[in-house]
Structures are given as structure tokens and as C-alpha cells.
Amino acid sequence: MLDTELKNVKNICIIGHVNPDGDCIGSALAVYNYILSNYSDKSVKFYSKNYNEKFSFLNGFKNIDENDNEQIIYDLAISVDCASSDRLGDFLPYYKNAKRKIIFDHHETNNLISDNSIILPKMTSTAEVIYGDLDKQKINKQVAECIFTGLIHDTGVFRYPSVTAETFECAAFLIGFGINHSKIIEDSYYSVSLNQQKITAEVILNSKLAFNNKIIYSTLTNEQMKKYKLDKKDIDGIIAHLRETSGVIGAFFIYQSGANEYKVSMRSKSEKFDVSKLAQKFNGGGHILASGCTIESNTPDIFYMFEDEISKMLS
Ligand SMILES: [Mn+2]
Asked: What topology is assigned to 2-190 in CATH?
């Protein structure tokens, strides 16, 4: 689809979701590098903010553009890994005003308007969706590194049930370019600062079990983040640690995202405990096993709001 869409356009922009994760950054830079190395007659920009420096080894990272105030009408806007218009954040106008809009995504709940799209909810990652669409002959080492990064971040390094034989075939193809797969996994997925370790420990220490130990939840405030000199982009790994607790089916991580605003990250270990349905009831969204929503509140003690729905889901 991408090669066809590129035929008659000159100016292209790529936009991911706010607070981009590894899949978002990897997918966007995969498309960026693919266009850059195969279509030298075209200009391409990737807009993002609040991205994590741990992805700086990816080619094109230093060219990420944060300017949300350019007076440009793009021929083609490409949305990656983003399920709704509000999640495009400050860059929404570039998408809205573009002459043509396309989407690569794997969120069941995607409701963005587009002219063309590949949205495959069963896929592990947007990175794997993009891999499926690209001309394999035109993939190079830089593109391979970006796709691989997206792949490992949205599969928890090949752990989640969404991983298929095709996922491993994709990874095998990418590793065939001689990418340093071990270093990418170590540096971009596992490696964290000591303060990140400490804040994770604090969140786990404060966690509580509910519903006969089937659910774990914990909270984090801005004050705690300040104490460790961390912000939102430094805490995206915490929910995975809560989820690892044995016996638990669902994990909930509530963290402050504004003066009176809290984000709720939800993880499930069972397709029967569909957290995307739960998130949707609170105007959020995501996947069956990984979703989130935002709640207006002046206190982090909001877990009780979900209790009725959780009890219905568990019965
Ligand atoms: Mn994703």
C-alpha cells in the first residue's frame, strides 16, 4: 500500500501517538527511513514530542521534528500506531489538512478518518503491520533496526500471545541484515536508570491485590515522579512489572498525567479478561490484553471506579 501511495506525492509527514512508545517510534522511523532511502525525490518528516532518548540509536531519530506550527499542507500524512485523532496531539492539524491520509495500525478501536489504511488488530505491533506492507527488496539495515525495535516493544520481547510464527519469520528476516538484536533488546527494552528501578520498587511496594488476588493495582503521583526526577516517558515499563505477579489476571497502574488528571494503564493475561472493552467504557481504548484510559480526578484513589465492571468481567 505504501509504495502505491507514494507514487504521486512529494511532501510526506509521519505522525504517531502522544507519549510515543517503542512501537510508535520504531514504526514511524521505519517508514521514514524506507522513504528516505528508496525515494530520494521526496521529502519526509516525522513529527513527535516527549519521545524517549533510549531510541536515539535509530537512524533518523535526530531528525524528529517537534514543530507543531508549520504552515504546510502535506500531500500525504501517515498515521502510525495511533487509534484516534486526539492521540495525534499537537500534530493533528498536519494530518487533518493533508491532501491524503493513510493509517498503519493494530488497534481494534481505531476510529481515525483516512483515505487508505491497514489496521490489523491481531498483529503484535504496528511495526509488524508495516513489515507486511513494505517491499522486502527495499528494506535495508536501518529500516530493519526500526521494525525490530517496534516488534520487541509491543511483544514484551516475543512474550505475548499475539506472537505468531510470522512474527518470528519477520524477526528472522530483520536479523538477517546483521542488526545487533541483543543490544537493541538490552538497551531499548531492559536497561533503565537507577531512579527508574527505585520508582518501580515504590509502585510495587504500594501495590494492592483485589478480587481474590486476581487483580493487582497501584498508583503514582507527580510528586513521586518529581522526587526521582522522572516524567511520564520514564515510567512506561512499570505496568509490565505489576503484570508479572503470579496468579494475577489483570494489572492496573494509575499515574498522574495532569493537575487533576490520571492515566490508567491496564494489562491482562487472558483473552477472557478483555481490558480494551473496560477501557472503552471510560473513553479509552487499546487491545484485549493492553489498554488505557484517562480519568479526571483530584486523587489517585480511583481504582474503585473500575470495580463494578471488573467484577462483572471476572464472573
Ligand atoms: Mn503498538
From this structure: inorganic pyrophosphatase (n-terminal core) (3.90.1640)
